[in-house]
């Protein structure tokens, strides 16, 4: 037999890792509730047509695509947004707006595996649909900041841009959509010279190229100053000025709500997904070069899927990278506080009674394992010790006659005879007084 391994780019989450994952998931869910986002669950497998419609070449080329047995072209979702947009364009069509929708789960991308880059990726996704106002954009930035803080991350930095600044220039210059997308993809990879070449080829004016060359250099944390410089530079393109103004309104709302935040405005910032139409952003922490979260505004997507005109803004938090950042900053994760007890019957005759006691305790919310390997008491205790359980509940005929069992603290090795009806409260009290 070959030695089986996980498929390249896929990972197992062992108990400690799964615990951290679920801890972050719980924080994400709490944020969703606090901001009024309702959870939805959409399928991991969707039609290739839906997923490829507007995700962009970059992601399209890295999708896990296959034919199902019915001959349909399907793919594993490389993001949540297309599925949520499908739902809003169809089932939710007549529901009152805005929608605040939250999803948590795995997405799949054929990325080159390395630290912080996997092929099965856990994301927490928030979409606010039905508002084009800057306060909606601000809300997505605010909840992202709240989440980062709630998992204990410090020094989070937001990099923010606005695709409208660049796209409006290209629209006015009559650069076609295909060339625009290609140029944005190149900018996303910071290949500015190549991007400008592509735009030149699409017959944009010399003046436009000159402005773009200066534009992509405009970035910094003095957000008001940078945005003013952008407005000056793009003066010949009114829609581009509007986009810069929109960005400045969003940032001033976020700052009004949150006080001081670490924000860098980057006028040449582009993101891989094609569907963005407005503000875009990513979140970073020092010492980790990859983004922990990314999002932005996409006002045309719902229409593209046959729905009513529905402006929308959203974000995906990359849980795997948030966990890496937490490890890097040594943030504390709440431990599993509750103790676990192992019930060990000493004689075959009391097995049923041992099972009954374990059920009673579970009914009282005590975590209980039963010795199921037929080990004798000494071996069973050693095994429970090695597996770091907290208590042994030893069930024997002698004590049972008095409605009692032996409760042993495995760490201190202290043991006492305890009435069965008192077991739960004793264990719970000990939990409260330990640590
Ligand atoms: P995107 O959907 O591309 O905006 O990605 C949102 C977030 O998902 C990123 O900021 C990352 O934190 C995370 N992410 C995307 N791709 C990967 C990957 N291959 N491995 C781990 N995390 C990823």
Describe the overall structure.
This protein is of the alpha+beta class. Helix content is 42%, strand content 22%. The protein folds into 2 domains: 15-328, BirA Bifunctional Protein, domain 2 (2-Layer Sandwich); 340-429, Anticodon-binding domain (Rossmann fold, 3-Layer(aba) Sandwich), CATH 3.40.50. It has 17 helices and 17 strands. A 9-stranded mixed β-sheet has the order 1-5-6-12-11-10-7-9-8, sandwiched between helices. It has a 5-stranded mixed β-sheet with strand order 14-13-15-16-17, sandwiched between helices. The longest helix is centred in the middle third of the chain and has 21 residues, at 238-258. The two termini are 46 Å apart. Bound molecules: adenosine monophosphate (AMP). The site of adenosine monophosphate (AMP) has 17 residues, from strand 6, strand 11, strand 12 and helix 13.
CATH superfamily membership of the largest domain, which one? Answer: Bira Bifunctional Protein, Domain 2
Question: Can you list the strand order of the major beta sheet?
Answer: 1-5-6-12-11-10-7-9-8
Q: Give the overall silhouette.
A: elongated
- Oligomeric state as shown: single chain
Helicity level, as a percent range?
40-55%
CATH class (first level) name of the largest domain: Alpha Beta
Q: What is the fold-level CATH name, i.e. the topology of the largest domain?
A: BirA Bifunctional Protein, domain 2
- N- to C-terminal separation? 46 Å
The description of the largest β-sheet is:
9 strands, mixed
Output mean pLDDT: 94
Query: How does CATH name the architecture of the largest domain?
Result: 2-Layer Sandwich
Radius of gyration: 28 Å
List all distinct small molecules, including ions and cofactors, that are bound in this structure: adenosine monophosphate
Which structural class is indicated by helix and strand composition?
alpha+beta
The total beta strand count reads: 17
| Beta-strand residue percentage | 15-25%
Number of helices: 17
Low-confidence stretches: none
Number of domains: 2
């Amino acid at each position: 037999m070959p030695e089986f391994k996980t498929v390249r780019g896929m990972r197992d989450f062992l108990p400690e890792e799964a615990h951290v994952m679920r801890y972050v998931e719980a924080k994400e869910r709490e944020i969703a509730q606090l901001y009024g986002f309702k959870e939805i669950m959409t399928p991991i497998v969707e039609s290739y047509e839906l997923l490829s419609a507007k995700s962009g070449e970059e992601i399209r080329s890295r999708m896990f695509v296959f034919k199902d047995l019915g001959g349909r072209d399907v793919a594993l979702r490389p993001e949540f947004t297309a599925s949520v947009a499908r739902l809003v364009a169809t089932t939710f069509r007549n529901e009152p707006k805005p929608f605040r929708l939250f999803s948590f789960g795995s997405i799949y991308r054929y990325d080159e595996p390395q630290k912080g880059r996997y092929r099965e990726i856990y994301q927490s996704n928030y979409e606010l649909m039905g508002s084009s106002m800057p306060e909606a954009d601000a809300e997505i930035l605010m909840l992202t900041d709240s989440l980062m803080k709630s998992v204990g991350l410090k020094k989070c930095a937001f990099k923010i841009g606005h695709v409208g600044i660049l796209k409006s220039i290209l629209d006015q210059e009559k650069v076609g959509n295909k060339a625009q997308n290609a140029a944005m993809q190149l900018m996303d990879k910071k290949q500015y010279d190549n991007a400008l070449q592509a735009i030149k080829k699409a017959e944009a004016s010399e003046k436009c190229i000159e402005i773009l060359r200066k534009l992509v250099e405009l970035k910094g944390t003095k957000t008001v100053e940078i945005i003013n410089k952008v407005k000056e530079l793009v003066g010949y393109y009114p829609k581009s000025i509007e986009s810069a103004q929109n960005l400045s309104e969003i940032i001033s709302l976020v700052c009004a709500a949150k006080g001081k935040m670490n924000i860098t405005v980057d006028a040449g910032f582009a993101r891989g997904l094609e569907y963005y139409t407005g503000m875009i952003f990513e979140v970073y922490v020092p010492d980790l070069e990859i983004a922990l979260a990314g999002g932005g505004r996409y006002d045309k997507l719902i229409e593209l899927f046959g729905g009513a005109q529905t402006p929308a803004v959203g974000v995906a938090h990359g849980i795997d990278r948030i966990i890496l950042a937490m490890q890097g900053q040594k943030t504390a994760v709440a431990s599993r506080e509750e103790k676990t007890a192992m019930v060990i019957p000493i004689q075959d005759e009391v097995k049923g009674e041992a099972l009954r006691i374990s059920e009673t305790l579970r009914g009282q919310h005590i975590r209980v394992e039963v010795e199921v390997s037929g080990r004798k008491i000494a071996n069973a205790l050693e095994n429970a010790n090695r597996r770091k359980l907290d208590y042994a509940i030893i069930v024997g005929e002698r004590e049972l006659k008095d409605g009692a069992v032996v409760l042993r603290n495995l760490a201190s090795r202290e043991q006492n005879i305890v009435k069965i009806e008192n077991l739960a409260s004793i264990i719970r009290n000990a939990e409260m007084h330990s640590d």
